[in-house]
Amino acid sequence: MVALKIENVWKYYGDTVAVRDLNLECDDGEFVCMLGPSGCGKSSTMRMLAGLEHISSGDILLGDRRINDLAPKDRDIAMVFENYALYPHKTVAENIGNPLRLAKVAKHEIRKRVQEAADLLEIGHLLDRKPMELSGGQKQRVAIGRVIVRQPQIYLFDEPIAHLDAKLRARMRSELKHLQQHLGVTTVYVTHDQLEALSMADRIAVMHEGVLQQFGTPAEIYSNPVNAWVAGFVGEPAMNLIACSCAQEGNAVNLMHDGFKITLDDRLAKAALSSGERDLRLGVRPENVRLTADPDDGMIAGTVFSRQLLGSDMLVDVLSGGDHIRVRTDPKSPFEADEKCYVSFDFDHAHLFSAETGISIV
Amino acid sequence: MLIEAKTSFVTVDEDHDYAARTIDYEPENRNTAPRRRFHLYLMLPAIITLAAITIYPFFWLIYMSLHKIVIGGADRWVGLKNYAGLLTDEKNIQGWLMLAKYSGLCLSFEILVGVLLAVILNNSRFEKVLVTLVLMPMMMSPVVAGLLWYYLYNGTFGWYHWLFQSLGLLGETSILADYGSALWGVVIVDIWQWTPLITLIALAGLKRVPRDQVEAHMVDGAGPIRNFFAISLPNIYPFLLIGILLRFMDNFRFIDHILAMTGGGPGNSTRILPVYLFDVSFQFFKLGRGAAIAFTLLAVTIILGMILVRVFENPAQKKALANQKD
Amino acid sequence: MASRDIVQYDTGLSRLLSVLAKVFLAAYVVWTILPFVIMIGSSMKDLLQAFTLPEVGDWAGTSALVHFTPTFKHYVALFTEESFGTYLSNSLLASVGSALLAVILGTSCAYSMSRYEFRGKKDLLFWIISTRMAPVVAVIVPLYAIFRNFGLVGTIPGLILAYTTFNLPFAIWMLKGFFDNVPYAVEEAAQCDGATRFQATLMILPLVAPGIGAFLVLCILFAWNDFLFATIIGSGAAKTLPAATKELVQPQNVQWGKIMAAGVVTTAPMMLLGLLIRRYLVAGLTMGAVKE
């Protein structure tokens, strides 16, 4: 069942286009992340959903209601703000209970539900404090409490954990995901952090410059990015995108680069030929690059530029023909800086993008 | 699965810091009709009230300045005669010069003493108590301050007159009774009442002097006096500028203590322009002439106000004022 | 904050400077306090005693400043011979009335000025601030003429309205600065919680309540201390304390004892109010340009 439907929505600020012809559907109970860098239109979209901004054109349907012209309070939504937006003069309990108070729920009922929400978020012991006395993480929990105390049609999260430190963020990711599954309320979650999106979302909507680039499950987005921009934005360390030109020599299809020449396998060769494009970008994730000391057929020679230990992995930056190739390898990898080395790509997980349009060829 | 080929595409800028985020919307920047109505309802009562008690009188002022006002009779149109008269009115010109001299004296002493006091008070042991003590005169009604000092200056039973005499500064004549010293008499009252304001402003500035600047200067080998001129003064300058402008405008606004002490005398020795304006309007009831003077005074104040707002709004000034806040 | 003190080392110069500073500080405190001491002292002295000064140069005689037999007859006289009870209530009504009017109208106006963007906003703000800076003597003549037409001269409502000319722009300007510091997201959150636009506005009022309170007090202070409007617009019937105090100065008979007592009565409440809002004083007196 479709819970939220965004149809041909545009948003202008004066002459600037913030959102361009957006179409999106969320299923009931789904956790949808809107992912993109700042200014990509994701926040504007969320604010249009909440009713904090007017919709320039198009429709937004919540369930079967068109909510374009409804005030926020009539939309049956609940939202968590980036900077928490707590009421500083109210206690935690009053903050969480505020939506219920506005809905004129009976006092004892409010108390009960606030307690439940607080217990769920493990802030039950803080109910009498004021926001000023809380840590960032606790404030964030209060802001979330204010949302889950209700059962609206949709939850809106606007970068809710962006201001927390890295450790806490990791923990909140898991908790939020658990909470959402437990409550089963359709959720739209805005973030600029691809890791948040990949780890929490049922589906991710990647946005860039006001345009929806790709909408799919995290696995799809990660392994089948529709264009080089999505490929580069999602994934950390980022995908290698190497500009090459494509040339046919006899039966072989080769990618020519200043530093090397590689012969494509059948799958890639077919796609490259049928696209008819000459200038391509080869996309390979660091984990799909192999690093060895001994040369073999079709390997690329390079020198180690730098090595970074990431804990469970080692990221080796190999310089070849003026391009950096990131390789994710074993932490015990013996390569030192300036050492000569050889890399090869796993073509089963490689992508080709048109250099001109960026669109994925395969 | 929903994958569409995209029309708009930009290559990845790998140097771009995607985490550096800005707000990509402006709140309430779309003036839709309900929003406009909501804010209009909130603003209009105040604006209408203010217009009624300021704009309306302002036009009245212009009207009056162009007429000979006959109390209980019909007003007579005189054109710019009231203004022309000002040019030849010696007391008017004298009033402006007096005002300049009075303001200059008040301001220079207030700034000198005020800043010195602020520097001494800053980080001193009983700063809080002392500042509170020192700012007491500001709370006093200026007319009461005038009466109090009028009493203190009294030639027969004033304690300050006794003090001046005992110090050999004055003879038998009270400070207010002498042409030469009367202006000083009123200036002293202004200094007594308003130096604390400069002190408070300078103190606010001193609190924002970046600690690293002072420390760097100390490491470079500067002493306390060099420190003041090289670091404190440049840092509190933007604050002082505001203090100066505010005090300057207040010197135009408040003549209460002068009215209480000398009423402009002896002779015209303390008759600064606003006092003269008061006399013309309420002693001689030349309301048309008074309106003309008032209009010129108002014009000068508004120009000063524009400068003040310009200073307020100046980005460098704003930055200086906000320096190290919180 | 002790931790922020800059380390000081003893040198000859710094020791000399610190002694000089202490002397200057002591002298300044005496200079500030002395008039108050004399005012309070004289208000509680018999006139004869008050008028007795030591011989010129007789420094020991200054003990008379504090050694005297106190009497409250001047205070009593204020409320029996003169009608200072009425003047006191006039002062209260006029200043509190105008402060309330200014803050109520000012709060709603300042809120929109802070939240709403429109063309000409800058000019409107400048106009508002300039009305506050206008010299009272310059505007009082036409104001008097208009108020006379409406029968407002010599009435408390007239005085309230007159004080509003400077208190309302003050309140708008200061409170706008206050609202500017309240994040808009709080109101948005309230709306998402189910509040109407207006309820959301009400919801943030408690956040600015301390500011509203402080500026209410400052408005009272400005109005209370006014003299010109009180004499001209208040003209006799609506006499406030400063105006009444000044009227005790009569050509043939300056009643100094009563004047000093009246001075104390007029000043003391404002001192207390000033202490109460000490934190907001600098911002209030500099139109928000300087904050402590």
UniProtKB/TrEMBL annotation, chain A:
Cross-referenced SUPFAM superfamilies: MOP-like, P-loop containing nucleoside triphosphate hydrolases
A matching Pfam family: TOBE_2
Highest taxon of the lineage: Bacteria
UniProt xrefs under Gene3D superfamilies: 2.40.50.100, Nucleic acid-binding proteins, P-loop containing nucleotide triphosphate hydrolases
Keyword Cell membrane: yes
Domain ABC transporter: 4-234
Gene Ontology cellular component annotations, sorted alphabetically: ATP-binding cassette (ABC) transporter complex, substrate-binding subunit-containing
Keyword Nucleotide-binding: yes
Molecular function in Gene Ontology: ABC-type transporter activity; ATP binding; ATP hydrolysis activity
A GO BP entry: carbohydrate transport
Keywords per UniProt: ATP-binding, Cell membrane, Membrane, Nucleotide-binding, Translocase, Transport
Sequence similarity: Belongs to the ABC transporter superfamily.
Name listed for the protein in its UniProt record: ABC transporter ATP-binding protein
UniProtKB/TrEMBL annotation, chain B:
Localization per Swiss-Prot or TrEMBL: Cell membrane
Membrane topology per record: Multi-pass membrane protein
Organism classification: Bacteria, Pseudomonadati, Pseudomonadota, Alphaproteobacteria, Rhodospirillales
Highest taxon, organism lineage: Bacteria
InterPro entries assigned: MetI-like (IPR000515), MetI-like_sf (IPR035906)
Major site of localization recorded for this protein: membrane
CDD domains associated with the record: TM_PBP2
Keywords: Cell membrane, Membrane, Transmembrane, Transmembrane helix, Transport
Gene3D superfamilies xref list: MetI-like
Cellular component annotations (GO), alphabetically ordered: plasma membrane
Pfam families registered for this protein in UniProt: BPD_transp_1
Protein's UniProt keywords contain Zinc: no
TM spans (from-to): 40-63, 102-122, 129-152, 182-206, 227-249, 291-312
GO terms (BP aspect): transmembrane transport
Similarity field: Belongs to the binding-protein-dependent transport system permease family.
UniProt domain ABC transmembrane type-1: residue ranges: 96-308
Protein's recorded name: Sugar ABC transporter permease
TrEMBL record, chain C:
Gene Ontology BP term (one): transmembrane transport
GO cellular component, as recorded: plasma membrane
Cross-referenced Gene3D superfamilies: MetI-like
Keyword Cytoplasm: no
Coiled-coil ranges (or none): none
PROSITE patterns reported for this sequence: ABC_TM1
Transmembrane segments: 20-41, 92-112, 124-147, 159-179, 200-224, 259-277
Similarity field: Belongs to the binding-protein-dependent transport system permease family.
Cited PANTHER family: INNER MEMBRANE ABC TRANSPORTER PERMEASE PROTEIN YCJP (PTHR32243:SF18), MALTOSE TRANSPORT SYSTEM PERMEASE-RELATED (PTHR32243)
Protein name (Swiss-Prot/TrEMBL): Carbohydrate ABC transporter permease
Source organism per UniProt: Pacificispira spongiicola
Lineage, uppermost ranks: Bacteria, Pseudomonadati, Pseudomonadota, Alphaproteobacteria, Rhodospirillales
